[in-house]
Amino acid sequence: MMEMALIRSHLEDSERIHAGIQLKESSDLGLHVVATADIPLGTVVIQTYGWMYPSQNQATDEAIKFILTQHKDSPINHEALLSRLHSLCPRSEPPSSGSIEPEQLAAKLNENSFDHGLYPFASYLNHSCKPNCCTSTPAPVPGSVVLLQVRTVAPIQSGEQLCISYLDGAQLALPMDQRQAQLAAAYRFTCSCIRCTAAPTDGSLKAEDLIQAPSPCCQQPRLPGLTGYLCTKCHAEAADEGLDAVLTQGFGLLQSCSMQTGKAAVDACLQGYQALDALDTSHWIKLLLLTMLTKALEQDCDMPPINQHSLRAQTTLLQLQGLEHLLHQHDYWIVKQYDVLVDALQAYNTLAAASPAVVVDQVLCDIDAPMLTVYERAVAQFRKDLDWWD
User: Fold this and answer.
1) Which region holds residue 159: left if phi is over 0, alpha if psi is between -120 and 50, else beta?
2) pLDDT band at 390 (very low <50, low <70, confident <90, very high)
């Protein structure tokens, strides 16, 4: 096994591995990274080079060609970077030349790619659906060798495993069975993180399935049970044909919205979202509808720009409200969504100032000023703690 001390000896000047982490191996977790000391929020634990694929949906054969190609502007020696691949699963013995066979590389790509690339030293981090670390590329240039940073998004205690998410924000909002299916298909493992093993009645960790329509017994939100719906307070389970109909309608809306484009997609997503009041804002169906709406708004949707920016801001705010229950309060993805919200509001305000006579349809919700203040303060504290931003 490649020890962390050996990894540190192969680092370039601009790379770093935090002194308070250690590489371990076990039969159930394989190679993984644990803290050997308490690590505060916002700490850089790994800063290392890797390959960012030219496109987000890179085919394996094209990714292999890209990685094996000499990059003239690479900040690190090509053979030195290739030599790091041999310790990744499935492991192989490095030849003296540092080269790697395409067949070996294909297998490693399938098990170790994330964030639209392959980053050897960061690939030792396991996945969690409630990660305590996030990744970012301060200077992302698709189709090149880039520097990847791994930072903590929560305080980590000594002995705790460091984990990132192999899924993006929208995928993390899916219910457990769908997350498990995506991870099994892409990475061939079954996740056993705290969200995937939480008790069925734990609404704080099962928020993606939370139903806001109150239970008849305690007037509390409910979660799906084996044959009905569980009260999150007393755990009583009861059938509810009305909720059955709402969830069936939600599945149908996802299918119909996915088949629309442009203005038709915007209208379908809006109508669908408004029709699902019984579901919590963090419910996966509602969050997927918002994701579809965001993509539709990025297209030519035949709307006045001021309405488009207003709707984009409102959509992003609802995504933030839905995802804050699923991830850490200061998760990197949530803060990036806040930036999208601010950009949309700035564009809206600019257009509104130039066209005061234009009336904007408040189709989803009014922008909640107190909620914006909460996010503004949280993001400001996050950036202060981290003292960085890409």
Assistant:
1) left
2) very low
**Cα separation of 101 and 196, whole Å?**
36
Give the start-end residues of each E strand in 4-103: 16-17, 21-26, 30-35, 44-52
How far apart (Å, rounded) are the C-alpha atoms in residues 25 and 378? 36
Structure token pair of residue 294? 């965001």
Cα angle 80, 111, 149; round to 5: 55
Contact 174, 185 (CB under 8 A): no
Provide the β-strand partners of residue 21.
35
Question: Is residue 299 over pLDDT 60?
Answer: yes
Q: What's the confidence (pLDDT) of residue 372?
A: 67
Residues 6+ apart with CB under 8 A from 232: 201, 203, 210, 215, 220, 221, 222, 223
Q: Tell me the β-bridge partners of 230.
A: 223, 237
Residue type, position 283, single letter: H
Question: Which of helix, strand or coil describes residue 115?
Answer: coil
Containing H/E element for 230?
strand 229-231
| Rounded CA separation 275/264 (Å) | 16
CA 128 – CA 31 distance, rounded (Å): 15
| Residue 232, CA distances (Å) to 213, 224, 236, 258, 325 in order | 12, 10, 8, 32, 15
The answer to whether residue 382 scores a pLDDT higher than 80 is: no
300-314 mean pLDDT: 82
Strand pairing partners for 237? Answer: 230
CB 46 within 8 A of CB 121: yes
Give dist(CA 55, CA 42) in Å, integer: 29
How far apart are alpha carbons 227 and 238 in whole angstroms?
8
Mean residue pLDDT across the chain: 81
Bridge partners of residue 47, in order along the sequence: 16, 149
From the CA atom positions of the chain, what is the Rg in Å? 23
> Residue 389: pLDDT above 50?
no
Provide the β-strand partners of residue 22. 34
CA count, 13 A, side-chain hemisphere, 336: 10
